[in-house]
Amino acid sequence: MSKFTVPSKAEVSESNQQIFDQLEKGLGFVPNLYAYYAKSETALPDYLALQNRKSSLTKKEREVVNLVVSQYNGCEYCQSAHTVLGGLNGFTADQILEIRGGTASFDAKLDALAKFTLDVTANKGRVQHTAKDAFFAAGYDEVNLIDIVINIGDKIISNYIHNLAQFEIDFPLAQKLELATA
């Protein structure tokens, strides 16, 4: 079995060391996921640019997408990180668990978003017209659809990296949530 390690600041390029300094200043630490990306000269800045791009989605809506996709892909790292971020964006622990399951009964618009995100992720974008109709009826538009797909792609990248490398989770572990699979 291969052993994947998270590099220290001294083990990454000078440009990535500068990004580490910015992350430490802004977050108080460099999350292991970001440090792992820094093994590549370009992956960390490219990923941060994608993650921090402007979006038509609110921070809460982006967290809904992050939580749903991370749960679907079984990424414990991202489930844990986004459980913390979801709480910082105003979701309760029970709401976060519900969102991870693909619904948000406490808010009709976020519920449509969670269901649509799960459908898009599970069906690789091949959703039924009824799913798109429900999404648009909830008040979303085509710009939102594009931003949701980009957000899903962002999360899939991180989910797959952690699922492959399995480095240490440096956030409080998210509660396990077992979902029935079709």
Description:
This protein has 182 residues and is an all-alpha fold. It is globular, with a radius of gyration of 17 Å. It has helices at 14-27, 32-37, 43-51, 59-72, 76-88, 93-100, 108-122, 129-137, 142-165. Helix 7 (108-122) runs antiparallel to helix 8.
- How much of the polypeptide forms β-strand, as a percent range? under 5%
CATH architectural type of the largest domain: Up-down Bundle
- In whole angstroms, the N-to-C terminal distance is 31 Å
CATH topology of the largest domain: AhpD-like
Total number of helices: 9
CATH class of the largest domain: Mainly Alpha
Q: Taking Cα atoms only, what radius of gyration do you get, to the nearest Å?
A: 17 Å
Total E-strand runs: 0
Helices and strands, with pairings:
Elements: H1 14-27, H2 32-37, H3 43-51, H4 59-72, H5 76-88, H6 93-100, H7 108-122, H8 129-137, H9 142-165
Helix pairs in contact: 4-5, 4-7, 4-9, 5-6, 7-8
Key attributes of the depicted protein:
globular, 62% helix, AhpD-like, 0% strand, mainly alpha, 182 residues
Summarize this structure briefly:
The protein is mostly helical and 182 residues long. 62% of the residues lie in helices and 0% in strands.
